[in-house]
Amino acid sequence: MRMLRSALALSSVLVLGLASCSTSGGSKNSSDSPSSPVSAAPSVSSSNSANVPKGDGSKTIYLVSKGFQHRFWQAVKQGAEQAGKEFNYKIEFVGPDNEQATQQQLDQLKTALAQKPAAIGFAALDSGSAEPVLEEIQQAGIPMVAFDSGVDSTIPKTTVSTDNKAAAGVAAKHMSELLGGKGTVGMVCHDQTSATGKQRCEGFQEWMKTNAPDIKLLEPQYAGEVGLAANTSKALITANSDINGIYGSNEATAIGALQGVNESGKKLTLVGFDSGKAQIDAIKAGTEAGAITQAPVKMGYETVIAGIKAANGMELPPTIDSGYSWFDKDNMTDPAIAQSLYE
């Protein structure tokens, strides 16, 4: 594949004014209100909630997420708060300004430690760099639960997450079917450091390599923000005249790819990951073929339940699957799918 650097240099920085993806200018916490409320995010329940001891209202479960720049994290927060209310625990939910702000997230994790909560939930941007802080948390006797991204450590009591590699494989399967098993496909992945970012890229690549020999898969490009993803997508199109499909590995990359494709004027098949108003509208309109949606409300809910159980010395499984589904314009109104979509 031809180098993209020169094409990227020609692209101007784009600002996408989409209500479905807001990037904050400062550190966010549970007292901050998003610019608009999460919609289509129902209450959830869990088989794991049986025998969970209720608190007395004085203890806190402290969740350090990857940010507030996408509606996904606001939906996770909603699920966490639902569980906190149900089981009488305070919920503190924080996240950095964006998914590249690794040091800011580590500082927030240190703040969580200083608050001495009953348990801490952590969605790592860079699991390796977090290890020293995780060790401090363990030494303080505070149980840790990983969520969304796995943490490269034995310290978390469990990990609440989507099976991202399998989900990305499902996205690849649908892309292949939509292209009739032939073509050239680009990938815009959201990062190279988090377990989520790596798994969603690798899962897509591995499925294509094994099952779609007549599809040429281009080297993955990385863009963690909407504007950069738009530029990257246009650069992919410019550098590869035969491209007929693009995969975006999260909400920001999918929205950015959608914008880049629209601005390029080229007709191709776009497959995304996560939900959000922009993707939902694009799928309804037929400009995006479909996407994988996680169950973010359930993820937040399960993380708090796991934190409460860990704080009370209860046994937890190594992983807790929060689920995923493929959605497109044909099935997005089905109740089983609709309950996991959020704007």
From TrEMBL:
Give a yes or no for keyword Heme in this entry.
Answer: no
Which organism was this protein described from? Arachnia rubra
- One Pfam family name is Peripla_BP_4
Q: Where is this region: Disordered?
A: 25-53
Which protein, by its recorded name, is this? ABC transporter substrate-binding protein
Q: Where is the composition biased (Low complexity)?
A: 25-52
Key words, A-Z: Signal
**Annotated localization:** Cell envelope
